[in-house]
């Protein structure tokens, strides 16, 4: 498996970590994060324009990165939030805010961003149980009517819970808990009717060597084990990414990339060992392969970033924005990974 990295933007407004990015159409939307440790940078939505006309080779350099003027009820500044897309809109849940970094408690509400009108709306749940506020959790959707929320860090400790939010009824439902240990900074992806979970940090070590698979029809988890030795499978990591990508021929694979493999002794104030590798797991044959990355310029290893999938020329590509480098510096770049 080969892929090529292309640098598509570098801008001061992208200089952040612990943020969220989501792709709608041919734009990536960047929200939240921090420039200095434990200080939310802003609550501004930034748009990174990917090239139009059905192909994504670069960006429109004149206005590649824009700060959007938004209307509606705006969310407060936050770090460690999570986002997902559904029906052309972006949804966010909780995060941390302020120096104390306490979770932003919003009584189970989601934030909805409408790119067509640049409008924010608070989506309140109708009744019943609701997930506790948290940060460094992860979200995805099934492309239908359901948003999934998993794990992360409440005010104390870490979680292994899984929740679904029905967009039509606006009801939360607590689902079967994921396999232990509880963790922050995991990654989930929805593909072929199932939810896949990897990685994360349990407070002591990075997690690896397992793809945990949730079946919504059975409300149950199974585990696919592998050797996280960097040869037969990716090494353990947290604050990475996991994305469902349609490869040539239409088969869906899971792509995990980057992340932190050895936490800093300074905790949130420092940077650990940052990875720059890319791995593909074929859902068809159940095997991992490391991607041979190419390009005249390659992105620095990083964690605490975010990534999403953009479709161009009928092919899925991955957009990566910002993050924390190994020198404890916030990165200000955006990259496109194209599989060949």
Automatic annotation (TrEMBL):
It holds the Pfam family Kelch_KLHDC2_KLHL20_DRC7. Gene3D superfamilies: Kelch-type beta propeller. The keyword Ion transport does not apply. Coiled coil: none annotated. It comes from the Eukaryota. GO terms for biological process: glucosinolate metabolic process. Keywords: Iron, Repeat. PANTHER family: KELCH REPEAT PROTEIN (AFU_ORTHOLOGUE AFUA_5G12780) (PTHR47435). This is Nitrile-specifier protein 5. It comes from Hortaea werneckii EXF-2000.
């Amino acid at each position: 498996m080969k892929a090529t990295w292309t640098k598509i933007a570098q801008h001061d407004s992208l200089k952040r970590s612990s943020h969220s990015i989501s792709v709608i159409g041919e734009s990536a939307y960047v929200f939240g994060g921090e420039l200095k440790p434990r200080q939310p940078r802003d609550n501004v939505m930034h748009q990174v324009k990917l090239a139009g006309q059905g192909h994504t080779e670069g960006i429109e350099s004149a206005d590649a990165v824009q700060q959007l003027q938004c209307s509606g009820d705006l969310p407060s500044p936050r770090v460690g939030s999570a986002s997902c897309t559904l029906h052309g809109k972006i949804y966010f849940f909780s995060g941390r805010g302020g120096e104390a970094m306490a979770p932003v408690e919003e009584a189970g509400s989601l934030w909805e961003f409408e790119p067509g009108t640049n409008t924010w709306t608070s989506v309140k749940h109708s009744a019943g149980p609701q997930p506790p506020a948290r940060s460094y959790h992860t979200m995805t959707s099934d492309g239908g009517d359901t948003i999934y929320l998993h794990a992360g860090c409440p005010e104390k400790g870490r979680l292994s819970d899984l929740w679904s939010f029905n967009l039509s009824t606006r009801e939360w439902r607590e689902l079967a808990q994921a396999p232990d240990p509880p963790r922050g900074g995991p990654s989930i992806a929805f593909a072929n009717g199932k939810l896949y979970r990897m990685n994360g940090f349990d407070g002591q070590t990075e997690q690896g060597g397992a793809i945990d698979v949730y079946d919504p029809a059975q409300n149950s988890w199974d585990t696919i084990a592998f050797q996280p030795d960097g040869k037969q499978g990716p090494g353990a990591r947290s604050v990475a990414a996991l994305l469902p990508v349609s490869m040539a021929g239409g088969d869906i694979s899971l792509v995990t990339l980057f992340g932190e493999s050895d936490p800093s002794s300074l905790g949130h104030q420092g940077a650990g060992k940052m990875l720059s590798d890319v791995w593909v797991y074929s859902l068809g044959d159940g095997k991992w392969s490391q991607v041979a990355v190419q390009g005249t310029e390659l992105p620095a290893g990083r964690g605490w970033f975010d990534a999403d999938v953009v479709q161009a020329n009928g092919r899925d590509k991955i957009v990566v924005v910002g993050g924390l480098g190994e020198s404890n510096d916030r990165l200000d770049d955006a990259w496109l990974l194209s599989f060949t």
